[in-house]
Design a protein that fits this description.
It catalyses: L-seryl-[protein] + ATP = O-phospho-L-seryl-[protein] + ADP + H(+); L-threonyl-[protein] + ATP = O-phospho-L-threonyl-[protein] + ADP + H(+). This is Receptor-like serine/threonine-protein kinase. Its main location: membrane. By secondary structure, the protein is of the alpha+beta class. It has 4 domains: about 20-190, Orthogonal Prism (Agglutinin, subunit A), CATH 2.90.10.10; about 220-320, Hepatocyte Growth Factor (3-Layer(bba) Sandwich); about 355-460, Phosphorylase Kinase, domain 1 (2-Layer Sandwich), CATH 3.30.200.20; about 465-704, Transferase(Phosphotransferase), domain 1. Helices cover about 25% and strands about 25% of the residues. A 5-stranded antiparallel β-sheet has the order 19-23-21-22-20. The longest helix has 30 residues, at about 325-355. The radius of gyration is 34 Å and the shape is globular. The termini are far apart.
Length: about 700
Amino acid sequence: MESQAFFIFLFSFASLLSSTFLKFSIADDTLASNQSIWDGDTLVSTSQRFELGFFSSGSSKFRYLGIWYKASPDTVVWVANRKDPMTGLQGVLTISGNRSLVLLNGTQSIVWSSNLSRVEEGPVARLLDSGNFVLFGKTETNSDSFLWKSFDFPCNMRIPDLKIGENNRTSLDQYLTSWKSADDPSPGEFTYRVDNHGLPQLVGFIPKSQQEWDVLDWSSGCVRSVPLDRQNGEGFVNVVQVKLLDLLEFRLNIGMSIKECEGECLKNCSCIAYANSNISGDGSGCLMWSGDLIDTRESPEDNSDRDIYIRLPASAIDSIHDSNNKKRHVKILLLSATLGILTLGTVCGCIIMKIKPKRRALNGKKESLELPLFDFTTIAATTSNFSDANTIEKGGFGLVYKGKLSTEQEIAVKRLSKGSGQGLDEFKNEVTSIAKLQHRNLVRLLGCCIQGEEKMLIYEYMCNKSLNYFIYDQNKSALLAWQKRFDIVMGIARGLLYLHQDSRLRIIHRDLKARNILLDNDLIPKISDFGLARIFEGEQICAKTKRVIGTYGYMSPEYAIDGKFSVKSDVFSLNVLLLEIVSGKRNRGFHHPDHHHNLLGHAWLLWNEDRALELMEACLKDSCVESQVQRCVQVGLLCVQKLPQDRPAMSSVAFMLGNEEAILPQPKQPGFFIERSSIDADTATRSENFYTNGEVTITILAAR
């Protein structure tokens, strides 16, 4: 009898403990004023569709209060404290004394609250079957009378019944914002919203291709609707909530105020935008960009301090400030355009009178070349009648001479060999490919000369000749210290990125090598010789040819063997050149006493043995940055991998080279890493007597 009474006592005591310490039931969908949800408890909607509780995302140890599909807990549809994660398992959700929902951490500090504008007695929170978490008064269940609801504050996922846009009742702008990463639900860089003011647009710019724009293809970017006009004045328009522009071409001055920054940018013809760098946190600092506006897009509202000032002609700025007076703006725009055209016409007229160009047609056809044509007699005079003393290079299709115009401007004249049918197509191609390209790392074409069988291209003169003049010469290579070599590599990468992605046309060079990288007075690299280049239209990314043209040692396997070329072919060639710049050795003809590999194979062996620094030329030992050398070798090997799909795009190459903190994948075996005693054993070449010093240019590849 006594044992039975003791058992009843234990059972009653256990029941009392369970009622005291067990947390809120996970089967309920409602949170009353006198209840709390602890970490480990959940609310479940009536139909068991949605669940509310605490969670951690992926490998993160932070805790968040959120709502997810009960059948798929990883699919989180709403997060309360996405900007303020909690640590530990002591989080609790409750209804506070002021009738608001509050989320408390382990120290009882408020992490998040619903911040009500009005209160009711005895409020109740409920998770509805729609996934909406709502707070309402004890006697009110009408959706219009909810005190607060999670649907008014969407996160990253749109679910049925969730509305996007401006809420007429609350005046809230309801929109979705991406997670920062798979493990971090804080607001990311992308938003999905209804803009009542129309599409976001950059004032003063229009699509490069309206046809692509109409089918939602924005990859070609925009161009100025009105060109810059220093004569009639220029200024800046403030664009708010914009992600900082691409940092390939920029200047930074951390001690300059924003007003001083504006003045400095206005004085610099190449400056197209400026912003407050705010590096010190006190609102000072100046960032100035040159080149193109790359990756200009809105950023989330929590980054709204990122205002950028974009340079526009005065006419465009006036049209923004005085939008109500459209007729006046049209007159200003027309006047500015007219003055600009008259000014340009006057300048062009002076140039035409100076150099006496002729408009001729290639092969007798009347095709506009859209650049100045020079008289043969003028070019002959500038080069001392093509004197041997003025010869600066012997190329595959002719000679290159140095000359000087009557304006004292030095030029390089590329003269096509007479009767060279092979070179005529390349001549036409070079004119059409490079005539409209403008980039500091591309050689500038000044004009051409066509007279009878004579065909010549006139370029800006590069006093330091080409890259191969330095890196393959044991004495001159010492003149290029490591930092200068690295700057040259980055310059070539930027130029190639422009050709592949940022120019008006997508251009595949197909003959990148040291000889085709010219160096100006400051040793800034300029990609040249576009005779073999191919223009890709629209979304075209690759092509195939039976006429394989290029230089042994730089050609990718898929191009040399199958005639397939793409942007990845140029990536291969560029990074053969990168490894040559690091080592000071040619890939083709490389010899080593311990193996028969070419330079790519030698670099691969050193990499696998963790001896990549041994690839570096000895004269760089005192000036090198070892981490940069190591990174260059790794990027070079990533880009000469056998399969084109394994090679990174040029945008990734430029990023990996310029960012020490970027994590790089491990490279796979390169293509063409064994040097044969003769030209490839599996192929035979029919040469048409085209050659360059120390390099073999092939034109057709056929199977035996």
